[in-house]
């Protein structure tokens, strides 16, 4: 893939001190700004501008050039039906620098400014695409460098997911992880191929061994002081389903099955670029679930890194297998917090749709912090339960665990219960079942790879990890 940190002017604010034209945000039936000339007022009225969400009216100056613009901000109720309302202006305004002429609450202004930058994202590695050339002057009171870091982290995640599988296998995901590490002075080690067996990662090896692209466990470390945060991301670079092969309708988006890995790398970039005072570890089991003579089989039983035996009842439930070994490795160091992100189950999408990823945790304070972070960052999450009466569903009798309980019910919950078996009961742990894909284009969110949950986690870290990171 192209360098994920290449120069992208559209993901940057206008330079400090740059001259900029005024952009007025108006709700429906709001009076026109007093600063407009009588001619401009007459022009806006003649155009029928009424503040409808997404509408735009360019106002002329005396020489026929552009003097300002009115942008329909819609009602608060209408804005709640989407995100990044201001991104609609970035897509429509002509090239140049623009400044918002309205007092937005700081938390609203940050989300809207980020949405403007994200509107400038294009995945142009394989085809030239037009990029918006309207630049925003960062609203006063905000930290432009921080918002640009958030945009860059989101772009990194989107790039990784959007890259086609012929150019994004385990080795390429390894290289991308090392590129992120090199940017921030982090260290990366990898356990590759048959060394996975020698080093105690049998489930990662079993899932990835049928592919000629060697499976591996990537381990990134950064920071020397502060609370320890470990991120675990599912890195299934392509998922055929294995011997329980997927139908074409289900295989079409499987390049995004490494969306958990892409998301934790985007979040790791944000954490390291902002120099948060913590110790960060990122574990990515990177595999390709292929069909071949060496593929693992239904009814195989493997002993995991933790020592729990797992019966394979569906080779298409491979994500929880590779995560199990990685979570066991994470848990061995007893970090302050383990977060697991994975494009894990279709059941999560049936329950909550593509926009709202569920998360699971037993820790009430952690759940509250994540919910608050999701609201603050306009990065939605919704808590689902580790419903213990369903534990029996993942116990097949012939082994400690079943990777794919029959019946088809509560699929996201049973997958989460499976993963919870590989971390200690006393540790702080949360699992996120993300989709990692934007099915239809929206302001600031083009169709394609999506970063979900990362900014919510970032916003929640001060409350989760304590005063050491309160300067976030």
Automatic annotation (TrEMBL):
Domain Cytosol aminopeptidase per the UniProt entry, residue ranges: 314-321
Record-level GO cellular component terms: cytoplasm
PROSITE patterns attached to this UniProt entry: CYTOSOL_AP (PS00631)
GO MF term list: manganese ion binding; metalloaminopeptidase activity
Pfam family, one: Peptidase_M17
Coiled coil region boundaries: none
UniProt keyword annotation of Hydrolase present: yes
Gene Ontology process terms (BP): proteolysis
Segments traversing the membrane: none
SUPFAM superfamilies: Zn-dependent exopeptidases (SSF53187)
Superkingdom of the organism of origin: Bacteria
Family matches, as Gene3D superfamilies: Leucine Aminopeptidase, subunit E, domain 1 (3.40.220.10), Zn peptidases (3.40.630.10)
Record keywords, A-Z: Aminopeptidase, Hydrolase, Manganese, Protease
UniProt family annotation: Belongs to the peptidase M17 family.
Protein name: Leucyl aminopeptidase family protein
């Amino acid at each position: 893939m192209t360098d994920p940190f290449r120069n992208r002017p559209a993901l940057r604010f206008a330079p400090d001190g740059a001259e900029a034209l005024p952009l007025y945000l108006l709700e429906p039936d709001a009076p026109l700004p007093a600063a407009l000339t009588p001619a401009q007022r007459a022009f806006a009225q003649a155009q029928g501008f009424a503040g409808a969400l997404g509408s735009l009216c360019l106002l002329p100056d005396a020489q026929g050039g552009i003097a300002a613009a009115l942008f329909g901000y819609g009602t608060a109720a209408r804005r709640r039906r989407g995100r990044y309302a201001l991104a609609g202006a970035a897509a429509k305004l002509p090239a140049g620098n623009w400044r918002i002429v309205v007092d937005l609450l700081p938390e609203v202004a940050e989300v809207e400014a980020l949405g403007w930058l994200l509107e400038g994202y294009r995945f142009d590695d394989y085809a030239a695409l037009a990029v918006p050339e309207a630049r925003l002057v960062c609203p006063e009171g905000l930290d432009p460098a921080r918002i640009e870091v958030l945009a860059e982290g989101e772009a990194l995640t989107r790039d990784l997911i959007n890259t086609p599988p012929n150019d994004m296998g385990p080795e390429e995901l390894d290289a991308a992880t090392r590129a992120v590490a090199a940017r921030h002075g982090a260290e990366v080690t990898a356990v590759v191929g048959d060394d996975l067996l020698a080093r105690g990662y049998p489930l990662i090896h079993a899932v990835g061994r049928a592919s000629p692209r060697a499976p591996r466990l990537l381990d990134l470390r950064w920071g020397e002081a502060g609370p320890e945060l470990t991120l675990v991301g599912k890195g299934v670079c392509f998922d055929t389903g294995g011997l329980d092969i997927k139908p074409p309708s289900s295989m079409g988006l499987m390049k995004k099955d490494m969306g958990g890995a892409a998301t934790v790398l985007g979040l790791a970039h944000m954490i390291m670029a902002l120099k948060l005072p913590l110790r960060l570890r990122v574990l990515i089991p990177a595999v390709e679930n292929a069909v071949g003579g060496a593929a693992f089989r239904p009814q195989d039983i493997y002993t995991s890194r933790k020592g729990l035996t797992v019966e394979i009842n569906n080779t298409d439930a491979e994500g929880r297998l590779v995560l199990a070994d990685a979570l066991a490795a994470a848990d061995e160091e007893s970090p302050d917090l383990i977060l697991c992100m994975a494009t894990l189950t279709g059941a999560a999408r049936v329950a909550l749709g593509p926009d709202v990823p569920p998360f699971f945790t037993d820790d009430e304070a952690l759940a509250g912090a994540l919910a608050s972070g999701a609201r603050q960052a306009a990065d939605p999450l919704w808590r689902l339960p580790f419903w213990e009466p369903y534990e029996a569903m993942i116990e097949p009798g012939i082994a400690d665990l079943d990777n794919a309980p029959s019946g088809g019910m509560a699929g996201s919950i049973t997958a989460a219960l499976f993963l919870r078996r590989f971390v200690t009961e006393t540790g702080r742990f949360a699992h996120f079942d993300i989709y990692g894909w934007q099915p239809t284009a929206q302001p600031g969110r083009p169709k394609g790879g999506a970063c979900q949950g990362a900014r919510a986690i970032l916003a929640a870290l001060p409350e989760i990890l304590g005063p050491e990171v309160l300067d976030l």
